[in-house]
Amino acid sequence: MADLRAMLRNQRTPHDRTTAPLAGKTVVIAGSTSGVGLAAAREIARFGGRLVLVARNEAKGRAVQTQLEQDFGAEVSLHLADFARLAEVDRVSRELLDAYERIDVLINSAGVYSTRRLHTDDGHELTFCVNHLAPFLLSVRLLPRMRHAGGGRILQVNSQGHRFGGLDLRDLAWRRRVYLGLRAYGASKTAQLLTVWELADRLQGSGVTINAVHPGEVRTGIGLNNGPLYRWYQRRLIDPWLADARVAGESLHTLAAAPELAGVSGRYFNRTHLEKPAPHALDRVVGRALWERTMDLTGLTDDG
Length: 304
Ligand SMILES: NC(=O)c1ccc[n+]([C@@H]2O[C@H](COP(=O)([O-])OP(=O)(O)OC[C@H]3O[C@@H](n4cnc5c(N)ncnc54)[C@H](OP(=O)(O)O)[C@@H]3O)[C@@H](O)[C@H]2O)c1
What we know:
It contains nine helices and eight strands. It has helices at 2-12, 35-46, 58-72, 86-99, 126-148, 181-203, 228-238, 246-257, 284-298; strands at 26-30, 50-55, 76-80, 105-108, 153-157, 209-214, 268-270, 273-274. It has an eight-stranded mixed β-sheet with strand order 3-2-1-4-5-6-7-8, sandwiched between helices. The longest helix is centred in the middle third of the chain and has 23 residues, at 126-148. Residues 31, 33-37, 56-57, 60, 82-84, 109-112, 130-131, 157, 159, 214-215, 217-218, 220-222 line the site of NADP nicotinamide-adenine-dinucleotide phosphate.
């Protein structure tokens, strides 16, 4: 009950802002063509950051690149990867490692919500792959450049949706259970939180931090990949209650740039407010088992 009260209090409290500049900093944003990621890209460009956009859709990515260059005079580059294909995440990671000497901030905001059970070509449940496996893989792959930055920050855009639960280590691909979109979304976000704690522990002393953030309840394109009925429900009944995505962009800029957050790692933020996640997302026994499964499914080994 106290946790619920804290969550509601955080919801009502305006997000913290910072004026800390990002000039000279390289910020990689995945999911930068829409919603939260796009809003974050605009705030980061406003504060002088050099942007590296990762997008799946080249035309949309180029349009965002041009807009950021025009509006803020920002230095922006674009790299392509579909997060439903881990081989593409691997390939884009190599591109980024080759192209940039240091990465100061990585924001993983690519995300999906599906009302239908869909599987990727590799056999992963789509939501689990895009929301958890792909950002995990990108984060681990880019660590050498973030360590080099001596203070790199990884921000995993998570969600209060983790509270829906749904993670079952025996059925990560949702082949043996009745599929419910909210539970699959909850499973992907829970999995991400569990690996944030694990990775934060492993990164202690490296200078690299990793945190998870619920970006606020904001109007974006999430869910619009679903059928017409869902789209109608989203646009007519949900969107009017939501905030402008700029709230999320400003919160992410704060977490990326605020000097007082240097060294803070392994935490969950409701926008910029520290919050306690649901108990099932704090189960470190499940977290360790999930870490092993995630390493296995992403083809990572302890040596890289
Ligand atoms: N909106 C909210 O209120 C809210 C609340 C809590 C958490 N979140 C989280 O915020 C994150 C961003 O969502 P959003 O609300 O900003 O939704 P959005 O407007 O739909 O943006 C999602 C972004 O992810 C990209 N994406 C989707 N599937 C992808 C794939 N297979 N490969 C590469 N990129 C892909 C989209 O690219 P395209 O432009 O090509 O589609 C887009 O750039 C998600 O993780 C979501 O769970 C949002």
